[in-house]
Amino acid sequence: MSGNAAATSHSSDVRPSPVNTKRTQSELDTDQLKQAFSRSRLKRENVDWVVTSFLFFIHAGCLLAFVPALFSWQGLAICLVMHWFTCSIGVCLGYHRFLSHKSLKLRAPAKFFVMVAGCLSGEGSPMTWAATHRLHHQKSDQDGDPHSPLVGSWWSHLLWLFVKRKREDKQLLFKKYIPELVDQPMMQFFERTFAMWLWVQGLVLLAAGWALDGWIMGASFVIWGMCVRMTAAYHSTWFVNSATHLWGYRNYDTRDESRNLWWVALVAYGEGWHNNHHAHPSVAPAGHRWWEVDMTWWAIRTLQMTGLAYDVRDRIPKGRQANDVETADDKVLAQAARPLTETAA
Ligand SMILES: [Zn+2]
Ligand SMILES: [Zn+2]
Question: Where are the domains of the chain?
Answer without folding.
Answer: 43-344
